[in-house]
Amino acid sequence: MVILGLHHAAITIPAEEEDAARYFYLEILSLPEIPKPGVLRPNGGFWCQLGTQQLHISLGKAPDRSAKAHLAYAVDDLEHWRKHLAAAGIQIKASVQLPGMERFECRDPFGNRMEFLSLTPDSQSA
User: Strands (DSSP E) along the chain, which ranges?
Assistant: First the structure.
């Protein structure tokens, strides 16, 4: 028996911020929304497709801003995302650089920690 992979990640946002979260995730990040099962729709929130995985945005308490838990988004143009997010008012924070990747971190408007990374050519041949 093996774990086959990661199907989805779930984050929470304050209930009163759902419209703002839809704007951020669907418009700023350009993630496509996918339908939630009907039985879950009364709970609010929404789901997005993220490559072959899903991101579930649920309504709940505001995230702990000191938490290290985060989603790491692999992107093909790190500088584009750095500029795009900064232009949307997101504060970009430098990350400790790791071998084989370039990266930065930030928080979504609701406090969820996010990392954006790009694999460097030398890491892709290893």
Answer: 8-14, 33-34, 46-50, 53-60, 70-74, 93-94, 101-107, 113-119
